[in-house]
Amino acid sequence: xxxxxxxxxxxxxxxxxxxxxxxxxxxxxxxxxxxxxxxxxxxxxxxxxxxxxxxxxxxxxxxxxxxxxxxxxxxxxxxxxxxxxxxxxxxxxxxxxxxxxxxxxxxxxxxxxxxxxxxxxxxxxxxxxxxxxxxxxxxxxxxxxxxxxxxxxxxxxxxxxxxxxxxxxxxxxxxxxxxxxxxxxxxxxxxxxxxxxxxxxxxxxxxxxxxxxxxxxxxxxxxxxxxxxxxxxxxxxxxxxxxxxxxxxxxxxxxxxxxxxxxxxxxxxxxxxxxxxxxxxxxxxxxxxxxxxxxxxxxxxxxxxxxxxxxxxxxxxxxxxxxxxxxxxxxxxxxxxxxxxxxxxxxxxxxxxxxxxxxxxxxxxxxxxxxxxxxxxxxxxxxxxxxxxxxxxxxxxxxxxxxxxxxxxxxxxxxxxxxxxxxxxxxxxxxxxxxxxxxxxxxxxxxxx
Length: 449
Description:
CATH class of the largest domain: Alpha Beta
Distance between the termini: 31 Å
Oligomer: single chain
């Protein structure tokens, strides 16, 4: 039962700290007192190095939309690996995946592949700058768009540095982020139409693009309001800036992604996660007019874009098979599972007297410790102490569920996969119910009273 300091996972973490700073190569896999080390995965389940099985709601931070080791994806990978792992030439596999994505995304006519969602956002920003000739971008306060300086601006500001709510400061995420980079990011308050309009107007001649996510992962999958989305589209049209939609997470929302779900028409779209079938991938796509900045055939491209592993054939075939399996019925299945999980968790929170809620859309569920209505990042972070320290407060629940064989994202995210069933959801709810009974009802931390 987790935690067990005599376990192989605990031993591996002790060893890792000697060779890897912090004991890992991505801090998102760490949780206290030590992370569980995986050995293998099948379907909805992952097994750790000590032989413990966990129903996996992390799904590698949503990239495993079919769970672990889907036979058709594995079969495609085995066949491709036997023929070609990597090569300094193009392959037909990149055309096949590009065709599929263009068919599904209403606003995308051409695609460039990369190796992560971070790269996809980075090249989308560069494309907007190259097309418009302008230096600045606007992005939403508190939104996560990957590990790129401009995209990280004001990802997690605090009351000590975030400034006025209607004119947020541009705050670096990494220490010593150059002030010059931050000056080129206009931070806009999520879902505040009038304040955002004023900020965009004030920088209209400098803005290359507006970067947004209609479903903000780091705010419990908080949705943008229709009025806010309408403002961003209308304003960018009127002022010659490009609208950049981050669909790295939200493409799993439906067959045509979040842009199909919400009826959006972005100029550029950033993709990642599910389109690679579990392998590293990213992509930036958009209208042909805007994607021409990557075309080098007439000389030096406006946005040079190389990359040793771009369009790697393994990722291409895994992504194509994964997406072919994502039929309308498959999307309906994972979204229905998400609804069932949300509804069940909210009933349990009420029954146990917890000031908490399960939110989100479709297959993306966000557990929030606090009952307040949220509209933006400051709402999310502001109802202290409930969310200002959301990860430390979530740890007792996260740990209790690990001990009961359920694994979710430590800050409260649960992502469903096609490998899951209604029985898995019901089992999960039973495990949550048991965990609630085991966690002391400390009123200042969890109770509604």
